[in-house]
Amino acid sequence: MTNVRDSVIDFLRQTGMTVMFGNPGSTELPLYRDWPEDFRYVLGLQESAVLSIADGYAQGTGKAAIVNLHSAAGLGHAMGSLVTAYKNQTPLIVTAGQQARSLLLAEPFLGAVDATEMPKPYVKWACEPARAEDVPKVLARAYAIAMTAPRGPVFVSLPVDDWEAPCELVSPLAIHGAPEPGPGAIKEAARKIAASKKPVMVAGPEIDRCGGWAAAVAFAEKLACPVWASPMSPRCSFPESHAQFAGFLRADETSVAEALSDHDLAIVIGGPAFTYHFEQPMAGGFDKDILQITNDPNTASYTQRGTAIIGDVAAAMEKLTEMSEARAAFPGTARPAAEPPSESELTSVLAVSILQEMRPANALIAEEAPSARGDVQNRLRIDKPESFFATASGGLGFAGSAAVGLALAKPDRRVIALLGDGSSLYTIQALWSAAQECAPVTYVILSNGGYEALKGIARRWQTPSVGTDLPDLDFIALAKGFGMPACRAQSAADLREALDKTFALPGPSLVDVVVSDG
User: Thiamine pyrophosphate enzyme N-terminal TPP-binding domain location, by residue (predicted)?
Assistant: First the structure.
C-alpha cells in the first residue's frame, strides 16, 4: 500500500522538484525516511536564507521549487523572504511541519496555531490538509496554483504524523503558459496605439520572467518610441545599450510624470509604473492616456486611467507588433557611456565601473546595494535576458542568498552578488551554503561602514540618521569562517587583481571592497 511519503516523493519526481531547500526540525524528519538517491537536499543555516536560495533557484529555472521549513518559528524566520518571493512572482511550494493532529487541541510545543493564517497575505493559497490521505492532493493543487499566472508562493502545513498514512498516487496537472489577451482586447490596444502620435513604453519585470525580450525589442522598434524601465524593477526587460532605452523611472509620482508627460500614450507592459516609494505628488497628477498590459489583475486594478489588458505580455506584444504600422526611425541615440571615474580613491562608482569592465560576458547579477543602485543603473549595461535579479519587495536579504539558488539553476554562468555591507548581513549564512554547494558565485561587498541608503534618505528628509553606522565588520573572517576564500580591495588595482582571480575560480569567493563614499 502506498503511503503519504511515497506518494509525495513520486509527485515531486513527476514535477521535476527533486531539489529540496530547507532547514529541518523535528516535525519534518519523517519526510526524510528512505530519502531517494535521485533527490538533492540544499541546506541553509537560517530559514530566511533558505527561502531566498529557493527563490533564486525557481527564478533561474523558471519552474516551481519546494521549500521545507520548521513549524511556526521556522516559517516566521522566513517571512521577510516570503514577502519578497510574493512580490517577485516566484513559484514556490513552501511547506512547514506541524505537530501531530492528536496534540493540536492543546497547542503543543512546536505546534503552529492557525498555521495557514501566518503567511497570509503573502501567499497565493494556504492549506493544512483536513485528512492525512489528502496531503498529496493538496500538494498537487498547491503546485497548480503556484505555476498559474501570476505565479507566486503557496503554503502547506504538514502534520508530523501524516507521512505513514495510506493514500493514492497523484499526478500533476499539465499547465501551459498564461492566457493570451482576447482578440477584442488586442484590437482595442492596437486602435489606441494607431491613434497615438507620440507613444512611450515602460518595460516591467514580467517581460523577462516570460521570455519576452525579443518581443519587447521588436514591438519598441516598430513603434520607434523610447523605452523606460519600470520603477524599482527586480529584473531587466530591455537591452540597456539599445538606442531606444531611455533609462530608469524613479519611484515617485513627479519623476514618472516628468519622464512620460511629453507623450500622449504610456504603454506600460509587464509591471507597475505608477506605484511609488516616496510621496512626491505632482500638481494635477499624470493626465496622459495609459495602456497597461500585465498578467496580474492586481497590478491592472490600480492603473490610473485608460485601458488595462490582462494576459501573457509576450503574446500581447507579438500580436500588437503584427497589427501596428512601422513608424519613422527612432530619432535618438543610445545613452552615452558614463565618464570614467577618477581612480585616485576607491569609490562605489569606481568599483561598479571596474565590475562592468571585467565581468564575464555571460555573468548574471544578483544586486542588493541600495546606496549604489544609481551607479549600477548608470554604469552596468544589462543586455541579455535573465541577467539581473533584485528584490521586488525592497526588503533586504534577497540577493546574497538568491545568488546561491541562481548558481545552482544556471551552473554554466558566473553569478555576481553585488551587495552593500549592511544588506549582506541579513542572510550572511548563505555564504556557508555557497561554499558547501561549490556554487560559482562571486560576492562583491561594497563596504562603506553603514546603512548609506538610509543615511541618504535621512539627509533628504532633514532628520537625524540613528543606528546607521556599522563599524568593526570583518567580512574576510566571516567568509573564511563559512569555508570560503576571501580578500580585501582598497584600491582600483586591488579590485582588478581580486576580480581577475575570483572569476577564474570554479566555486565561490568574496571580495570586500572598502569604498570611501560612506
Answer: 3-109
